[in-house]
Design a protein that fits this description.
The chain is about 40% helix and about 30% strand. By secondary structure, it is of the alpha+beta class. The protein has a single domain, classed as 3-Layer(aba) Sandwich (Aminopeptidase). Bound molecules: coenzyme A (COA).
């Protein structure tokens, strides 16, 4: 298994990665959001890479993508979402973390779960953020496995917040926000 950055021009790998995203976030998944492969490529992958320091990583086994993750500057997240939805008292909790790199989404193919791939993709994004000069990393989640992984990697929960967002599923309410220094 190898972790590498995903070039959006590599259509074959991009489509495989998008299929995993749909499987984990689409209809019938834990999130049950109405994703299809084309909308993931356009609205998730391409958008991620337009953001400051946006980067996509994939895990590849036997030439096949088995997981995908995206990250970018925390500022991009705050501008798009935080300023609109998070109250000031929560936003200030990120202040002590300095320049933050944001671990956005991660999706591991269900056949390859619990094999440490989520951890490796987090480590790749930590290393990338560190190389770019970031002080800390942050993420948010409602998923128990991601929360467990974040805590085991030294992240501390800053606050929980339920509120509106772009997520379509009405089941998603309470999100937990985490950060740690790099
Ligand atoms: C969250 C996710 C990325 C984890 O990937 P993974 O490759 O299985 O992660 P790892 O194997 O590195 O670690 C998973 C940890 O969570 C634990 N775990 C797995 N399922 C769990 C569950 N339902 N509840 C609690 N913990 C769970 C594992 O035991 C493991 O902990 P350990 O290292 O102490 O044994 C994967 O489950 C996933 O793709 N989920 C769907 C998409 C998603 O929710 N993404 C996160 C939000 S953007």
């Amino acid at each position: 298994m190898e972790i590498k950055s995903l070039d959006l021009r590599n259509r074959k790998l991009v489509m495989q990665a998008a299929e995993i995203f749909v499987k984990r976030f689409g209809a019938g998944s834990f999130y049950n959001d109405p994703w299809d492969v084309e909308s993931v490529v356009k609205n998730v992958f391409a958008e991620n890479n337009k953001k400051k320091d946006g980067k996509l990583f994939v895990a590849i086994k036997d030439g096949q993508v088995i997981a995908v993750a995206g990250s970018h500057a925390f500022g991009a997240f705050m501008h798009e979402w935080g300023h609109k939805h998070l109250p000031e008292e929560h936003r200030t909790k990120f202040k002590p973390f300095g320049k933050i790199y944001y671990l956005d989404f991660i999706a591991v193919h269900p056949d390859h779960e619990n094999q440490g791939i989520g951890r490796k993709l987090a480590e790749a994004r930590h290393e990338y953020g560190k190389r770019l000069g970031y002080d800390s990393v942050a993420l948010r989640t409602i998923h128990p496995a991601r929360e467990k992984l974040a805590r085991s990697m030294g992240y501390k929960m800053l606050f929980e917040h339920s509120g509106s967002g772009r997520v379509a599923s009405s089941t998603i309410t309470q999100r937990k926000y985490f950060a740690r220094r790099l």
